[in-house]
Amino acid sequence: MLLTKQSLTVFVLLLVQLIGTFAQGILPSGWENIKLTRELDLQHTFTVESFQLTIKNIADKPLKQYFIPIPKQLRDQLSTITASLSKNTDALLNCYVSDTLNTLEDGTVLSYGVVELPTPLQPGKEIDIVARIFYNIAGIPYPSKIKIGEVQQLYFSTNRLPLSPYSTLEGRLLVKTKSDVKEDNKPEDQFLQGTFNDDTNTLEFGPWYDIKPYTVSNVDLIYKHVPALKEVINLQRDIWVAHWASTIQFEEYYELTNKGVGLTDGFSRLEFMKRSQLAQFGMIPWIHILEMSLPEQATEHFCTDKVGMVSTTDVVGDTFYIKPRFPIFGGWFYNFTIGWTNPLNQFLQRYENDDETFLLTVPILNGPQDTVYDNVNVTIYLPEGAELLDAGSPVSYKSISTAHEHSYFDMKEGHVKLTFEFKNLFTDIGKADLLVKYRYSKAALYKKPLSIAAYFFSALMGFFVIRSLNLSINN
Ligand SMILES: *[C@@H]1O[C@H](CO)[C@@H](O)[C@H](O)[C@H]1NC(C)=O
Ligand SMILES: *[C@@H]1O[C@H](CO)[C@@H](O)[C@H](O)[C@H]1NC(C)=O
Questions:
Q1: For residue 81, what are the CA distances in angstroms to 150, 161, 318, 374?
Q2: What is the pTM of this model?
Q3: Atom of ligand 1 nearest to the CA of 376
Q4: Pick from 26, 63, 292, 300: CA 20 to 30 A from residue 370's CA?
Q5: What is the pLDDT of residues 444-455, one digit of tens each?
C-alpha cells in the first residue's frame, strides 16, 4: 500500500488539544448568546453534551475564544471536546480546557472548555457554532439494586438553565434518552418544566429568555435504560509488528465491570436461566455476551481468563463473540485477555520512492460497542532494529513513552516499544488511528534470522567449549 494524501487528512480530522494555555484568573466575557440550545444525550454509557450556538461579540475588541462551562467535578471525567462552524461542519475548530477555575457565589466551581474561532470576530458581529463535550459518565442506577426481571433506571442531575458565563437571550435544554424520561423534584413553576415530545423521544425545556450569566439551577432526571453500562477500568493493548512474518498481532487485557444496577437477592441460577432468553436480545442490564469488533481478516483468535482458555467464543465476520463464564451484574468484574492476528499490509503503508520508511496506522481500540474506558495503554512493538521517526494520536493522550523490550531472540537493543497512555475513552473514539512512522532497513530485516543463527552457533560453540573443558578436567 502506498501512502496517499487522503489517508493523511484522516488523522487531522479528530484533532483535539486538551491543553490549558490560559493564565489563572482570566474570566470569560465579551460574548452574548443570542441563541443557546443544549442537548444532553443520555442514550449511551458515556454522555454527550451538544451546544448549538448563535453568539455575538458585544465587546469593543475582536474576540477569538468562546468559553463553555465544565463543572469542576466533571473535569476528571472529560473525554474530549469538538467544535465546528455550523455552516461548515467539516472545519473543526481548535478546542482545549482552560486552566481557569471560577468559584460562583453558591460554591459551584467551574472550569471551562475553550472553543477557538479560526479568526477573531469583530465587535457587533455574530457567528454560529456547534460544540460537543463528551464525558465518561452515565446516570447512576436508581434504585442501586433491583430483582432479576425488573428494569434498570438511571438518575442524572445537571443544570437546567444555561450556566454560561455570558448572558443568554434565548435558551433551551433538550434531553434524549433510550426511553421516556421523567423529572424528579419537578419545580412548581410551569415555565421551568419540560414537556416530552413523543416524535423525537426528547424531553424539551424552554425556550427561556434573558438568562443572566452563571445561572445555577438544577434538574434531576429519571429514565429507564435497559442495557448494561460497560466500563473498562483498565485496558492494556499490545500490538506486535513483525515484518519477518508479515503479520501484526494484537493482545488485549481487559478489566471490565458493569457500572449499572446490582442485584438485591444475589444471583439465583434458576431465575437467571428463565431470563437469559431475554438477554440475547439485549433486554437485561447485565453483560451476557461481549461483541468485540475486530479489524477485517483477523485470524488466530483466542480468549483467556484467570481460569484458563475461554471456549465459549465464536467468530462471525469481523466480530469476536465472547461469553464470559458468568453474567456480569452491576458491580461485578470480569478480567480477560483476547488476541488475534492480521496481515501486516492491512495497517502498514510504504512511502513512495522509499522502501525503508513505513507508516503504521492502527485503531486506538477494538472493543465492544457502547463502552467507556477509564485507563488505556496502547503499546506498539516495532521490529528489532527499527528506528522510530514520529508518532501521533488524533485523540489527546496523557503520556507517550518509548523503551526497549527484549523478546527471546533479540540480540541487541531489542524491540522499540512505544506506549500511548489514554484516559476517558469511549467506543466511538477508538475508531481513530494512531500513527507511527519508522525506518526499517532491509539490512535490519535480514538481521533477525541471521542473529538467530548466530545465537545457535555461539550456544553450540559454548557447549563444545564446556565439553572440551570437562574433558580436559577429567583427563
Ligand atoms: C499505563 O502505563 C502507566 C505508566 O507506565 C502505568 O502507571 C499504568 O498503570 C498503566 N495502565 C494500564 C491500564 O496498564
Ligand atoms: C480484576 O480487575 C479489577 C479492577 O481493576 C481488580 O480490582 C481485580 O483485582 C482484578 N481481579 C483479578 C482476579 O485479577
A1: 36, 21, 30, 17
A2: 0.85
A3: 13
A4: 300
A5: 665 555 444 445
